[in-house]
């Protein structure tokens, strides 16, 4: 992001630019060395282009975000005590590691397949081999997810198991106002 500096910038506008992270460009254009020492600590750390904090790229989730989100949802919905919560966390953590490794292998196979071009030797055979490997990985992924669900189910009590089954049947996008059928007239609000 480049900022054109025309004329003189006031100290307050430079401080605002420093706090928002655009200050280094503005100060370089204005011929200044850097922010006032008081405000230097308020500047965000320099990031590489397209990077978020902690070296993460846009669209990536932290490794444990899915586990923590699932754990928070389950503990809220199923009212887990601390001991059961720890057991559920270990099950989710182990399952997450296996799933992540399988997903990485799947993505690398897909990339290899997309790098092939029709002009390559034995193009159709290579695509077929890659598709077969991907199908095997998807089968393994389904098995791992089923194994993790069974391990999670074994940790829960009988009441929590029934609540878990109800929770897994319910989809987040299905919660909310009932959609009207196409032939139904919308209800008119009183004026």
Automatic annotation (TrEMBL):
Residues 167-191 are annotated as: Disordered. Gene3D superfamilies: 1.20.120.1490. Residues 171-180 have a biased composition (Basic residues). The keyword Signal applies. It comes from the Bacteria. Keywords: Signal. Residues 181-191 have a biased composition (Basic and acidic residues). Residues 1-28 form the signal peptide. This is Periplasmic heavy metal sensor. It comes from Marinomonas mediterranea (strain ATCC 700492 / JCM 21426 / NBRC 103028 / MMB-1).
């Amino acid at each position: 992001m480049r900022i054109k500096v025309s004329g003189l910038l006031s100290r307050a506008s430079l401080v605002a630019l420093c706090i928002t992270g655009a200050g280094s460009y503005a100060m370089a254009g204005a011929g200044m060395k850097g922010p006032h020492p008081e405000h230097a600590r308020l500047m965000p750390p320099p990031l590489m282009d397209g990077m978020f904090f902690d070296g993460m790229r846009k669209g990536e989730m932290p490794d444990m975000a899915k586990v923590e989100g699932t754990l928070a949802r389950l503990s809220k919905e199923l009212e887990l005590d601390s001991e059961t919560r720890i057991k559920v966390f270990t099950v989710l953590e182990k399952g997450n590691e296996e799933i992540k490794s399988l997903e990485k292998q799947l993505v690398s196979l897909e990339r290899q397949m997309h790098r092939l071009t029709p002009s390559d030797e034995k193009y159709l055979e290579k695509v077929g081999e890659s598709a077969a490997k991907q199908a095997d990985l998807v089968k393994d992924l389904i098995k791992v997810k089923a194994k993790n669900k069974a391990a999670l189910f074994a940790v829960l009590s009988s009441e929590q198991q029934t609540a878990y089954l109800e929770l897994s049947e319910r989809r987040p996008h299905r919660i909310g106002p009932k959609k009207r059928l196409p032939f139904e007239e919308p209800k008119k609000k009183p004026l």
